[in-house]
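A quick aside before the break. I want you to see a complete sequence-to-structure record at least once, exactly as it would be stored in a machine-readable document. Don't worry about memorizing anything.
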Amino acid sequence: MKLILKFYYIVAFILFYLSMLVEANLIIAYDILTPKLSIKPGFIKVPLTLKSNFGLLLFSNLLSMTPGSLSIDITDNRKTMLVHVLYHTTEDKMLKEFEKIQNKIKRITE
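That is the input. The structure line, written in tokens, reads:
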């Protein structure tokens, strides 16, 4: 039963990530094709809740593969990640999105 649940979480995460990837690409494409750029680049410090090396690797790689975001650095104590974003909105909204991604990664790695 546990294996089936883990498989479900992996498939759900892949679908979730693919939808995020498509959405990010559409936003970037729209911004490129319109005359006025609406980018608001900035840095955000993301608290890390992931403990496993694989979870951190997956999180940082997935962020970097998504257009508009790039993981820059992880603190030595592995509690915070510096992320560059192309579309900086409210910090609370962005932190909730990053937390949502981390929670989904936790389900498949821990």
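Two observations worth writing down. The chain has three helices and three strands. The two ends are 16 Å apart (CA to CA). We'll return to this after the break.
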